Amino acid sequence: MVDGSSVIDVFIEAINTREAGARTALLRRSLTADVVFWGPLGRRVGRQAVEDFITEVVQGHPAGPCRFSRTTGVDAPEEWARFGWRFEGGDGVPLLTGMDVVHLTPRGAIDQIVVFAGTLN
């Protein structure tokens, strides 16, 4: 079984990496080329689409430089995993929290990401 925590932490490192080449390398280690990303702004397909989202929405946020962090352990029954997260501005103030659910391939990469942003009422 794949260690979901490791690949998720590589993905989070990619989100927080400001240097484009290093971010691309980390995304190659953590995501499949055809990853499906269900985010707050809709569905995107492909590693490049996820990288564009990170560059535009996360790295380009007006409260930047922003930081994304995992706030819970990784719950990974079989090939599915979930974890809580926090997105905070450069001053450390939380901007958004939520939970992601990811699907892990047998080789240890993420091929699906579903983002649940905000609290559930």
Automatic annotation (TrEMBL):
Domain SnoaL-like intervals: 11-104
Pfam families from the UniProt entry: SnoaL_2 (PF12680)
Cited SUPFAM superfamilies: NTF2-like (SSF54427)
The protein, known as: Nuclear transport factor 2 family protein
Organism listed in the record: Bailinhaonella thermotolerans
Species lineage: Bacteria, Bacillati, Actinomycetota, Actinomycetes, Streptosporangiales
